[in-house]
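Task: complex structure prediction.
Instruction: return structure tokens for all chains below.
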Amino acid sequence: MTADQRHGAEIDPATGYETTGHDWNGIRELNTPFPRIVIWALALTFLYSMIAWILLPAWPIGRDFTRGVLGLDQRQIAMQGYAALERGRDDWMAPFAAGNLDALAADPALMARAMPAAQRLFADNCAACHGTHGTGGPGFPDLTDANWLWGGSPDTIAETLRVGINSGHPDTRVSQMPAFGRDGMLSREAVQAVTDYVLALPGSAADAQSAGAQVFAENCVACHGENGNGGLGTGAPSLVGARWIYGGDRAKVLATIHGGRQGVMPSWAGRLSAAEINLLAVYVARLGANNQHAEAP
Amino acid sequence: MLRLHYNLERISMGLVAGIIVAASIGGLVEIAPLFTIDETVEVPADLRPHTPLELAGREIYIREGCYACHSQMIRSLADEIDRYGHYSLASESAYDHPMLWGSKRTGPDLARVGEKYSDVWHAAHLVNPRAVVPASIMPAYPWLAATPLDISTLSAQLATLARLGVPYSPERIANAAADALAQARPDGAGGAGFVARYGDRVAVRPFGGDPARLTEMDAVIAYLQSLGRLTTAPYVPQ
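Output:
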């Protein structure tokens, strides 16, 4: 017994399909059969899922789950893939784990292989604050100039990367510019006077007999040096020249002396491996030489 | 072909029963594993819940729709581990209700962003992302720094989460508002009580930069700096 015989539907002459048998004012609806290819696709998908249940981790059973015949584990696969990535870098990364950075930096063949990777590492981790080219910004030091707060040798930079500055690391470098004005250490007049003195530095141009010079000698030289040149390994920057971390116009310098500065460099120990830190240290030490365009004041 | 469907359609209650059976299979497969979730997710012994200030920041994170562009889920893929660190563990968000894993990444993943950048950077970046990352397409959120943080509902929020199994003791719930203030004021009066309740592993500092005011900026930065740092479990070799 065929379908059209069973409910008396007629066959549409144009398509050869039966109609539903209903008639709405002369309009009849085709009863088009479900496409075979979809039925087959559904059946194959179902079959695949049965096979997958057997081969792959699938069903939860209480605290455990069916492991599957192949015993695949996505976490293991990922960690193996990560280990393979590390092995692929090993021939040029391994020397950095051992240290002796000055010798490594003098090896042009090694630098040619390692520096492109260091650039990507810098972009992923350092560029957010120090900029893509390491030129810094307000509050974040320029890494391409000749001024270094803690020293610019690769080993010193590696140590700064490892422990950070004013970070949460137990061995962190500590550098605090006190809030001379806000905390009442200097009077308003003294802050104004020392601001003028700092702006007039270097010492040859500034008036050594002024009130500002006296305030400077009593409060600032311990960290910034007698001539304000910085570089004493205290984290205090040079106050001479056109380069400023927090801005060099009168209002910015006044704000720095009044409210203090406690810039934070996070510690990268734990987040980056020792070899990655050393690689970045060499990269950063070379930034100045590689960024001639940034040398203009 | 089978006439089952054809015949079923002619009995309306049979069709209803068929639909219910088919739909509930999908539901059961998704829901049934959750009945045993308390046993399958092993909560690390050192996992801490968010502090009230971080929790307030989390609410702002949700309110501003940060999750629409930032995931908090490092997937178990080699290149993700290479860029972001160890893949995320289910236990790391055991106290998150709701979790904010997400799957949409217009910006980077934030699961381990805690203490990666300084507070000052976060503040500058939230007020105007272009000020620190010139190529950024992230919207600016300058009102966070100007809006005082509403701490009046924090106790109720902690109490709600406590009912969901987050370890907020009655003492923590009662002091929620005071603890939110204390975490952003290192020299304030509530510091000792805060450390007693949440331990000395939690950062106490003026996250937004000004200890005299408690703003939404303090809360958001406190929350961001806590991401990936609630437990050491992923960092311990297994």
